[in-house]
């Protein structure tokens, strides 16, 4: 028996049409700095996207060519988010914080044709442009001198002038939902970055899931603040999810320091936000230094990218009435895969224990853990192995077939190590490359970090494995103390003593002004290990 349901493609175009008609009066607000904000409606955003699509068509984007972006989180970036995929091209968000060589590698492999770029990022983009083989035009957003970009020999046009010359309507084509809509590259912490290509269908299904109550519960009455960069895994699906639900969008542009974010939350009153734990740690300590601010409009903060310390969740909930919800995913999973909602009826210590996990998979996502030979392990909360996932918005391969070793008979090998319990809750103990193996036994750097950051004197803490003559590897704790606070390695080691087994306790300690971070704000453990090897840290070793 065959279905008689209408076969309407699931596309970004459908999200665009719905947002700009049914929800046309909802707004996109962008920070302009020093407490300033500008707003446009979704209807106006749709007209801007149509003008941009017409301009891109005039520049030769007629098929699935790649349109790069080199931008902050702002309304113009949202226009590109809509225009490129809805016209049948492929949106390629370039990571503005990668090295020039990596940016050039990515843009050349993707064969980007046009880049839409913020002029405030000229210093980062200008050295890269001469290295780009396929890019012929840059559309420059904002005010500033074009000469540093045009000296590369590329055509450089002003965004406002391109749009002013075009019609506010566009004949959006009917697209195959399985065709490419966007691509994003991994951050390249090991080897060259690898491209992940998202389809219209995967993006649509992911956006639907973001809106569900079991995920981030985005609805018409919400105002959504994606602090996570729009160049990173579609800003966790928050922009498309907001437009699908009819929620307003609030975008921080380049103003992502803690005082600016606090002002944005106080004045614009977003209800949902998303960012990595280090951002919220900065916000928390800024609030402690500057009491009297009100961020209670936030009813839910999606937090991921690295493990969220339980102490951070409790501090926000108890002091500011803000719920930080841990979620897990990666570029390859679009990214949302699991969310840590405790099951009904669970209270007390077990409730918080489940909040500290990475959570249970969304409907459509399957999870398992496997041993070193790829054999599935039991979901008993005890067995530890590499997490593998599969589902309709999880990539089945990298662009141009790179690194097939990451795929296991239809499952994505995540590189995360952890366990799964009987209820399906995933608890990750480390990235495979960050696992500390000491005397043949594993030590969880994540667990040590989460305990350390709960110490009242500790602002940040990162733990890595370093070579040891006797045990092969031992943990090195790299710690940032609060301004004016003091703590010794002996004191911190004593603080850990009743929280972890004795042989986990670090002997090596380094106190630093700041823990290095990756392009998306996570602790950069590769750099920490390199600096230790170079002797850059003054390491205190306990007996």
What report would you give on this structure?
- It is built from 16 helices and 27 strands.
- The strands form 5 sheets. It has a 9-stranded mixed sheet, sandwiched between helices.
- The model has no long low-confidence stretch (mean pLDDT 94).
- The N and C termini lie far apart (74 Å).
- It is α/β, with parallel strands linked by helices and 543 residues long.
Topology:
Layout: H1 12-21, E1 27-33, E2 36-41, H2 42-58, E3 66-70, H3 75-86, E4 90-93, H4 100-110, E5 112-118, H5 122-125, E6 137-141, H6 147-150, E7 155-158, H7 159-164, E8 180-185, E9 195-199, H8 200-211, E10 223-226, H9 238-245, E11 248-251, H10 258-268, E12 272-275, H11 277-289, E13 300-303, H12 310-320, E14 324-329, E15 336-339, H13 348-355, E16 360-361, E17 366-370, E18 385-390, E19 407-408, E20 411-420, E21 426-431, E22 436-438, E23 441-443, H14 445-452, E24 458-468, E25 472-481, H15 489-496, E26 508-511, H16 525-533, E27 540-541
Parallel strand pairs: 1-11, 3-4, 3-5, 4-8, 5-6, 6-7, 10-11, 10-12, 12-13, 13-14, 25-26
Antiparallel strand pairs: 1-2, 8-9, 14-15, 15-16, 17-18, 18-20, 19-20, 20-21, 22-23, 24-25, 26-27
Helix pairs in contact: 1-2, 1-9, 2-3, 8-9, 10-11
